[in-house]
């Protein structure tokens, strides 16, 4: 009985926690605790002088109280979420007052011709589907406009925000059957159901701010309000007033933990082994033996951090670059899981969170390796192995069908409400004309006016009578409503510039449930008049006259025929307004039902977690508050946050659930800081870009810094060391085997290339530097030519404009076809690393404009940028501009530059040093022309002897001779005829004589007889026999296996000998039919392979002319030119040659086999083709990609162009 009572009490507690987090109880009054979740019109319409007066966010001193702290965090964070839209609306109002055009500008996007088309009744709530017109054509799949979660301000066309302002949130922006329509469609959710608009003819104006993103703070704001309603053991640390770090009560009750998971192998000393297996964390710090690294995977600083993480209420672990933050976190989780299993009773799960989905997946993957049962919240994982552990998939395996009785009752209520909304909408809209009785019920027309429409003496027309009494009254003034809708002007043809848009994939929509992750679906209730009245053609403004006629005429038939259409439109509008309060009330009820449904689903999920004994629940830091009801209901004791220094303070504070006893923060406050969308709110005194992690360390809160890095070579670590005084090198990074020199650089594994090339600005106001990008591209080519794999090189830059420019240059370089490119902005590369990193600093303004480095002055970004490389790090920038721009940049970049100087890794007057691996010559590159025809070596002639015995006549090159064709004349005797070879050494021997041709013909005939070919003829033979020469056919030279031709400096092409073609069947008379059949089979086979390999993007495009052989043996054209892809297939050619890519093609009159293009970095100079646009262009209209063959309009012949590589290597 006691257990049953305890279970009931526990269940009731969980019910209350879930309901309190979904049905948030707001305080009375107008304080911060009374604010609704979605901002109000009053907040958006505030003038600038009224919007001032935010509290300061103290980051250098403790807070006096939790109340003051939470209030400041809330008000600053709410302003950050609304300031962009508030400023945009006030800018719109100011422009309107001063008679200026309302165009898109640097502050806002303006959407006109906005109309409500329908309501979609989803389980999230009712969504309004609106159509709109942007002011220019938008490439929606490349655009960051209308992101789900963005705030919108909506007014009527007539009001222009003078008195009307309705606030909504973008719920989802599907492209298919949404943004791809004309006009585009988007789904929004009203902030207040009372603001809902139902008049489908009411023209609205919609404004979106360019700056600020409400969804990133929306759920944290609610969490901060909830945090004020309950206390946790962590609160005393958050305010900064409590410095003594205490032990959580649940650990004090069970202090014995097993630390043997950190051992490399079981200890021979049984006493020490037992001590590690049964370590009492209350007895003091973990004893660190001198041979710690000999017995443990962890170094001394990691072991110290580990003890803090498993034994203290608050653990702050700083991990400089390469010190193993995540590895240490995983070891701590292993120990926590082992201790959790030993504790009696139902044990709540451990909550782990990270700033990005990528970091979260890494952490959860390690938990899986430790045999932990995990659950992942949020559906935006890129890893397939995470999918079975999503909440949706786990729920599908566990939950009962139907969700239980209460769930079915809520679904019945929800569907009943939908039916009521639909019935009311149909009474206003629908296929018929409006019912006069509805107008009378709502007091829109009088009793006498109603009676005048039902006069029995009036004749009725049967086909009009079915539309209602208004059909006869309107007469020829009745018109289809689409006539008025379709006369709206279309969007401007001006095309918006491409955006380099990048945001976390978990904002596809704002759904809580992963069932709706891709698209939120529901019953769509359309708001559309089928019929309306004709407007009087000679009046621009007729509404007041229509109202006066309606007031004056008791008999509606007394209204002049020309004005009946206008009066009918007015009646339609009045009926919509009259029913709007009822519809809004139904929507409010529907929202409440959806909340109850969400609460019940969360409650069922909590039971599932405990019944399935799920040990670890993971989500992003945004998810900590988005799924707060579910997570708080699980009553977790421990919360571990990776990338805590990148996480906003409000996101963590709002996730301090009442049950929490232990908070572990892992990060590095000297790398990336939290992002603030409103720049002035990130600065003093509001400090939104200061994380809780950084603030507590600055307040001298106890923390541990990991101090042994395992990433960078020592010379690279010295560049970073000014920011980390005690950072040391692990022995592994000093090993030449583990960290070899960068080839072709003569042991200079870091370098600062200084230049004064001027920067530029693109159409998106992003900075770029063309000459710097070209220098980096050519250096990239040089490194690849010297054996560095392209995927082992990362190029970083601060600006998206420069990133796009670099990608274009890399893809367009003929020597890099088939290469993989890692080009990222610094902000997006936090937590990543690579062997070689090239940093493009871009900024170099014209001297007339003064020195300026923009946000290169941010030390957090600088630390990330200089700490990503393992083996080689090369910087490109204007040193003078960097160190003289401002005092902050002098300290920051002057310090970094001095580290290069101290190591002799900069020569400003000479440029970039290269060292030939063949001759040891040093080459200095200062200008772009200095690269000349460099093929990865120096300027000397090679002069080495090739394997064939000929001397190499090329310039010094890094490519092995075995992979280069010999272009010397071949003097071997051709065995078929006994004559000297007429070709080159790299070609198959031949001599242009009759004896050679006869010998080859006899050999071919013998080969056919061996294969049992019925007629001994192939398609190639027939074409040669019947006029192939007439349309430009030439028998290809027979090659010696796979060879390469061309110059190393100009790119190489790879060819292979012809492949055997299928012989014809029995009857030559049926050759035409046979050829047609084989053509069809080739087409079918190609189509299948296209479908099979579509996801690999290994496609080229050619133009193919369908042909056939007629009865006279002449090949003729049988159809229009077809543009289609050809397939590239990865193969391994014979004779130990490198892996190649075979491209299957079919061109008119060609009997040749496959053409090869290298995909291996062993051939860095192989230039298959110039880089084209992608074949499948989701961002644009479905236009064909560049063609690989072009028809000569004058001759009708085909001018063959090299096939273009359509692989998107970004």
UniProtKB/TrEMBL annotation:
UniProt lists compositionally biased (Acidic residues) regions at: 1197-1210
Which interval of the chain is the signal sequence?
Answer: none
Q: Could you name the domain of life of the organism this protein comes from?
A: Eukaryota
Report the residue ranges that make up the DNA2/NAM7 helicase helicase domain in this protein.
298-674
A single Pfam family it belongs to is AAA_12
In the record, what terms sit under GO molecular function? helicase activity; hydrolase activity
Q: Which UniProt keywords apply?
A: ATP-binding, Helicase, Hydrolase, Nucleotide-binding
- Where does this protein come from, organism-wise? Pseudoneurospora amorphoporcata
Question: What does the entry give for GO biological process?
Answer: regulatory ncRNA-mediated heterochromatin formation
Q: Which SUPFAM superfamilies match?
A: P-loop containing nucleoside triphosphate hydrolases (SSF52540)
What GO CC annotations are associated with the protein? Answer: nuclear RNA-directed RNA polymerase complex
Q: Which residues are in the DNA2/NAM7 helicase-like C-terminal domain?
A: 688-879
By what name is this protein known? P-loop containing nucleoside triphosphate hydrolase protein
Positions of the UniProt region annotated as Disordered: 1177-1210
Q: Where is the ZNFX1 domain?
A: 107-210
């Amino acid at each position: 009985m006691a257990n049953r009572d305890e279970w009931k009490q526990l269940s009731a507690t969980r019910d209350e926690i879930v309901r309190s987090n979904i049905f948030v109880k707001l305080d009375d009054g107008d304080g911060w605790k009374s604010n609704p979740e979605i901002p109000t019109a009053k907040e958006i319409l505030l003038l600038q002088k009224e919007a001032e007066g935010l509290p300061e966010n103290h980051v250098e001193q403790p807070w006096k109280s939790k109340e003051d702290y939470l209030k400041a965090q809330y008000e600053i964070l709410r302003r950050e979420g609304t300031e962009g839209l508030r400023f945009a609306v006030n800018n719109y109002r100011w422009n309107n007052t001063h008679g200026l055009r309302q165009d898109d500008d640097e502050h806002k996007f303006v959407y006109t011709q906005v109309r409500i088309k329908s309501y979609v009744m989803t389980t999230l709530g009712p969504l309004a589907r609106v159509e709109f017109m942007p002011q220019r054509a938008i490439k929606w799949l490349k655009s960051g406009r209308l992101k789900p979660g963005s705030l919108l301000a909506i007014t009527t066309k007539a009001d222009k925000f003078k008195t009307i302002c309705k606030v909504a949130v973008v719920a989802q922006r599907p492209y298919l059957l949404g943004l791809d329509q004309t006009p585009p469609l988007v789904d929004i959710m009203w902030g207040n159901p009372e603001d809902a608009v139902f008049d489908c003819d009411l023209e609205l104006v919609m404004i979106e701010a360019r700056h600020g993103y409400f969804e990133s703070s929306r759920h944290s704001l609610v969490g901060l309000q909830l945090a004020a309603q309950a206390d946790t053991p962590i609160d005393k640390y958050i305010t900064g007033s409590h410095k003594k770090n205490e032990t959580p009560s649940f650990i004090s009750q069970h202090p014995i933990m097993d630390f043997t998971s950190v051992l490399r192998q079981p200890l021979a000393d049984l006493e020490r082994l037992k001590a590690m297996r049964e370590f009492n964390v209350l007895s003091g710090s973990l004893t660190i033996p001198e041979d710690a690294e000999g017995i443990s995977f962890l170094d001394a600083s990691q072991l110290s951090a580990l003890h803090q993480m498993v034994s203290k209420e608050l653990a702050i672990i700083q991990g400089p670059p390469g010190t193993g933050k995540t590895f240490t976190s995983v070891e701590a989780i292993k120990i926590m899981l082992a201790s959790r299993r030993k504790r009696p009773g139902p044990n709540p799960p451990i909550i782990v969170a990270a700033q990005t989905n990528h970091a979260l997946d890494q952490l959860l993957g390690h938990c899986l390796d430790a045999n932990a049962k995990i659950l992942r919240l949020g559906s935006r994982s890129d890893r397939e192995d995470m999918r079975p552990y999503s909440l949706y998939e786990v729920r599908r395996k566990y939950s009962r069908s139907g969700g239980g009785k209460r769930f079915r009752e809520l679904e019945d209520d929800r569907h009943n409400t939908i039916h009521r909304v639909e019935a009311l909408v149909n009474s206003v809209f629908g296929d018929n004309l409006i019912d006069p009785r509805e107008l009378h019920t709502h007091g829109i027309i009088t009793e006498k006016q109603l009676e005048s429409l039902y006069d029995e003496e009036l004749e009725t027309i049967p086909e009009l009578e079915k539309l209602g009494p208004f059909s006869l009254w309107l007469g020829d003034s009745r018109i289809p409503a689409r006539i008025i809708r379709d006369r709206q002007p279309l969007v401007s043809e001006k095309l918006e510039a491409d955006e380099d848009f990048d945001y976390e994939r978990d904002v596809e929509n704002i759904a809580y449930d992963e069932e709706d992750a891709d698209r939120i679906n529901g019953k769509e209730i359309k708001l559309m008049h089928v019929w309306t009245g004709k407007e009087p053609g000679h009046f621009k403004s007729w509404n007041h006259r229509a109202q006066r006629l309606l007031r004056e005429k008791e008999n509606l038939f007394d209204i002049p025929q020309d004005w009946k259409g206008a009066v009918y439109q007015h009646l339609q509008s009045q009926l919509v307004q009259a029913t709007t309060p009822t519809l809004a009330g139904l929507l409010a009820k529907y929202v409440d039902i959806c909340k109850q449904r969400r609460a019940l689903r969360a409650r069922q999920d909590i039971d599932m977690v405990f019944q399935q004994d799920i040990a670890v629940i993971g989500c992003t830091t945004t998810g900590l508050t988005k799924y707060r009801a579910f997570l708080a209901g699980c009553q977790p004791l421990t919360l571990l946050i990776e990338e805590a220094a990148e996480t906003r303070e409000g996101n963590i504070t709002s996730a301090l659930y009442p049950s929490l006893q232990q908070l572990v923060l892992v990060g590095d406050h000297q790398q990336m800081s939290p992002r603030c969308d409103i720049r002035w709110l990130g600065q003093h005194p509001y400090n939104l870009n200061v994380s809780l992690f950084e603030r507590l360390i600055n307040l001298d809160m106890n923390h541990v810094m990991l101090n042994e890095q395992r990433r960078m070579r020592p010379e690279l670590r010295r560049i970073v060391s000014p920011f980390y005084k005690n950072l040391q090198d692990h022995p592994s990074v000093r090993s030449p085997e583990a960290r070899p020199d960068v080839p072709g650089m003569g042991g200079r594994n870091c370098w600062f290339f200084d230049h004064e090339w001027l920067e530029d600005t693109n159409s998106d106001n992003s900075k770029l530097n063309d000459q710097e990008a070209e220098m980096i591209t050519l250096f990239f080519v040089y490194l690849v030519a010297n054996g560095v794999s392209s995927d082992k090189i990362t190029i970083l830059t601060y600006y998206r404009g420069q990133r796009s420019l670099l990608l274009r240059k890399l893809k367009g370089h003929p020597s890099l076809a088939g290469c993989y490119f890692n080009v990222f902005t610094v902000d997006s590369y936090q937590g990543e690393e690579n062997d070689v990193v090239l940093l493009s600093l871009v900024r170099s303004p014209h001297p007339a404009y003064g020195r300026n480095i923009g946000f290169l002055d941010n030390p957090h970004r600088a630390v990330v940028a200089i700490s990503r490389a393992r083996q080689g790090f090369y910087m490109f920038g204007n040193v003078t501009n960097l160190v003289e721009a401002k005092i902050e940049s002098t300290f920051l970049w002057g310090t970094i530059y001095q580290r290069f100087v101290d190591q002799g890794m900069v020569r400003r007057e000479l440029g970039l040093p290269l060292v030939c691996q063949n001759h040891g010559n040093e080459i200095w590159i200062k200008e772009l022309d200095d690269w000349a025809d460099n093929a990865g070596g120096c300027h000397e002639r090679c002069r080495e002897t090739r394997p064939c015995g000929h001397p190499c006549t090329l310039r010094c090159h890094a490519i092995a001779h075995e992979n280069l064709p010999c272009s010397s004349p071949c003097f071997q005797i051709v065995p078929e005829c006994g004559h000297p070879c007429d070709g080159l050494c790299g070609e198959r021997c031949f001599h242009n004589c009759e004896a050679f041709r006869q010998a080859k013909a006899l050999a071919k005939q013998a080969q056919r007889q061996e294969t049992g070919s019925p007629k001994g003829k192939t398609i190639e033979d027939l074409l040669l026999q019947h006029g192939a020469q007439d349309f430009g056919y030439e028998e290809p030279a027979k090659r010696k296996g796979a060879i390469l031709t061309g110059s190393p400096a100009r790119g190489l092409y790879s060819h292979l000998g012809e492949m055997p073609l299928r012989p014809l069947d029995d009857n030559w008379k049926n050759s035409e039919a046979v050829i047609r059949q084989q053509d069809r089979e080739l087409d079918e086979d190609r189509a299948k392979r296209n479908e099979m390999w579509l996801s690999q993007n290994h496609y080229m495009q050619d133009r193919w002319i369908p042909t056939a052989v007629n009865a006279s043996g002449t090949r003729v054209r049988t159809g229009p030119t077809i543009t289609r892809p050809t397939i590239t297939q990865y193969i391994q050619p014979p004779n130990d040659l490198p892996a190649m890519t075979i491209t299957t093609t079919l061109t008119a009159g060609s009997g040749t086999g496959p053409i090869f293009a290298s995909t291996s970095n062993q051939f860095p100079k192989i230039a298959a083709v110039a880089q084209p646009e992608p074949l499948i262009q989701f961002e644009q209209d479905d236009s064909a990609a560049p063609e690989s063959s072009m028809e000569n309009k004058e001759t009708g012949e085909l001018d063959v162009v090299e096939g273009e590589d359509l692989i998107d290597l970004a």
